[in-house]
Amino acid sequence: MSAKAMKHPLLPFIVILVAFFAGAAIILYWFPPEMKKTVTLDIRGASITAELAETIFERSRGLSGRPSIGSGEGMLFLFDTIEPHTMWMKDMAFSIDILWIKNG
């Protein structure tokens, strides 16, 4: 064993652990699990089926990486606080409309 490995016996374990979690994060970003939670929104007579984006991961992923979204479909981003929020959709393949809803 090298002198450096003996000084830091946990270093190889830490490197493997970091590599594992980095790989898992990349896989989840490019191949996320299907979002199961949906709600139906009725807005002035129009019905929209919206996937819920409740977690930081779901909100940061958003609609990025999808080839399209169906007519009458969308994504509802839920935030815990009423404050200015910005949207950034990386790698969008289609245009979107954003609607801000405050207090219901």
Structure description:
With about 100 residues, this protein is an alpha+beta fold. The chain contains three helices and three strands. It has a three-stranded mixed β-sheet with strand order 1-2-3. The longest helix is centred in the first third of the chain and has 20 residues, at about 10-30. The protein is elongated, with a radius of gyration of 20 Å. The N and C termini lie far apart (about 65 Å). The model has no long low-confidence stretch (mean pLDDT about 80).
Characterize the largest beta sheet: strand count, sense, and whether it forms a barrel: 3 strands, mixed
The fraction of residues in strands falls at 15-25%
Secondary structure: number of strands: 3
Instruction: Name the structural class.
Output: alpha+beta
Large-scale geometry? elongated
Task: Report the uncertain regions.
Answer: none
Give the N-terminus to C-terminus distance in angstroms: 63 Å
Helix fraction, binned, reads 25-40%
